[in-house]
Protein backbone atom coordinates (compact mmCIF):
# COMPACT_ATOMS: atom_id res chain seq x y z
CA UNK A 1 0.00 0.00 0.00
CA UNK A 2 1.44 3.35 -1.04
CA UNK A 3 0.82 6.30 1.26
CA UNK A 4 0.78 9.54 -0.69
CA UNK A 5 0.31 12.09 2.10
CA UNK A 6 1.85 11.05 5.43
CA UNK A 7 2.39 14.66 6.56
CA UNK A 8 -0.59 16.99 6.87
CA UNK A 9 0.82 19.43 9.45
CA UNK A 10 3.56 19.64 12.04
CA UNK A 11 4.68 16.09 12.79
CA UNK A 12 7.61 13.68 12.67
CA UNK A 13 8.33 10.11 11.64
CA UNK A 14 11.14 7.60 11.82
CA UNK A 15 11.87 5.19 8.95
CA UNK A 16 14.09 2.12 9.19
CA UNK A 17 15.59 -0.17 6.56
CA UNK A 18 17.05 -3.44 7.84
CA UNK A 19 18.25 -6.09 5.40
CA UNK A 20 20.81 -8.47 6.98
CA UNK A 21 21.45 -10.28 3.69
CA UNK A 22 22.79 -7.04 2.17
CA UNK A 23 24.26 -5.76 5.47
CA UNK A 24 21.91 -2.76 5.46
CA UNK A 25 20.84 -1.16 8.74
CA UNK A 26 19.72 2.37 7.99
CA UNK A 27 17.59 4.98 9.69
CA UNK A 28 15.88 8.08 8.30
CA UNK A 29 14.12 10.70 10.40
CA UNK A 30 11.78 13.44 9.09
CA UNK A 31 10.21 16.29 11.06
CA UNK A 32 8.17 19.33 10.04
CA UNK A 33 8.33 21.89 12.86
CA UNK A 34 7.84 25.59 13.52
CA UNK A 35 11.00 27.67 13.49
CA UNK A 36 11.36 31.20 14.81
CA UNK A 37 10.49 32.86 11.49
CA UNK A 38 9.94 29.98 9.05
CA UNK A 39 8.74 26.40 8.88
CA UNK A 40 11.62 23.93 9.20
CA UNK A 41 11.96 20.53 7.55
CA UNK A 42 14.51 18.61 9.60
CA UNK A 43 15.91 15.32 8.40
CA UNK A 44 18.58 12.98 9.67
CA UNK A 45 19.92 9.76 8.17
CA UNK A 46 22.64 7.20 8.62
CA UNK A 47 23.55 3.69 9.71
CA UNK A 48 21.93 2.44 12.91
CA UNK A 49 24.41 2.69 15.79
CA UNK A 50 26.62 5.29 14.10
CA UNK A 51 26.64 9.07 13.89
CA UNK A 52 23.83 10.44 11.71
CA UNK A 53 23.98 13.27 9.23
CA UNK A 54 21.49 16.10 9.59
CA UNK A 55 20.02 18.70 7.30
CA UNK A 56 17.58 21.56 7.92
CA UNK A 57 15.61 23.30 5.20
CA UNK A 58 13.57 26.44 5.81
CA UNK A 59 10.31 27.22 4.00
CA UNK A 60 8.20 30.39 4.13
CA UNK A 61 4.92 28.39 4.01
CA UNK A 62 3.98 25.15 5.75
CA UNK A 63 2.44 23.81 2.52
CA UNK A 64 5.86 23.81 0.82
CA UNK A 65 7.49 21.97 3.73
CA UNK A 66 4.68 19.37 3.82
CA UNK A 67 4.94 18.82 0.08
CA UNK A 68 8.69 18.16 0.32
CA UNK A 69 8.30 15.95 3.42
CA UNK A 70 5.69 13.81 1.64
CA UNK A 71 7.94 13.53 -1.41
CA UNK A 72 10.85 12.32 0.73
CA UNK A 73 8.55 9.92 2.61
CA UNK A 74 7.31 8.38 -0.66
CA UNK A 75 10.88 8.11 -1.99
CA UNK A 76 12.12 6.28 1.12
CA UNK A 77 9.14 3.90 1.38
CA UNK A 78 9.61 2.94 -2.28
CA UNK A 79 13.20 1.99 -1.44
CA UNK A 80 12.02 -0.36 1.31
CA UNK A 81 12.07 1.82 4.42
CA UNK A 82 9.29 1.11 6.96
CA UNK A 83 7.91 3.51 9.54
CA UNK A 84 8.61 2.61 13.16
CA UNK A 85 7.24 4.17 16.35
CA UNK A 86 9.26 7.00 17.88
CA UNK A 87 10.73 6.37 21.31
Q: What does it look like?
A:
A hairpin with a 4-residue loop joins β1 and β2. It is built from one helix and five strands, in the order ββββαβ. The mean pLDDT is 92. The relative contact order is 0.27. It is 20% helix and 45% strand. With 87 residues, it is α+β, with helices and mostly antiparallel strands. The longest helix has 17 residues.
What characteristic shape results from the CA principal axes? globular
Report the mean per-residue pLDDT as an integer.
Answer: 92
Radius of gyration: 13 Å
Estimate the helix proportion, in percent.
Answer: 10-25%
Number of helices: 1
Quick one: CATH class? Answer: Mainly Beta
Count of structural domains: 1
Give the termini distance in whole angstroms.
25 Å
Largest sheet: 5 strands, antiparallel
Count of individual beta strands = 5
Strand order of the largest sheet: 4-3-2-1-5
- The low-pLDDT segments are none
Q: CATH fold name, please?
A: q64v53_bacfr protein fold
Summarize the SSE layout with pairings.
Blueprint: E1 11-19, E2 24-34, E3 39-47, E4 53-59, H1 62-78, E5 82-84
Antiparallel strand pairs: 1-2, 1-5, 2-3, 3-4
Nutshell version of this structure?
The radius of gyration is 13 Å and the shape is globular.
Characteristics of this structure?
87 residues; alpha+beta; q64v53_bacfr protein fold; 1 helix
Amino acid sequence: MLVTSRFTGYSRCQLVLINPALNRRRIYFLEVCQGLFHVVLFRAWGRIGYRVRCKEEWYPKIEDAIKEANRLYREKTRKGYRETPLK
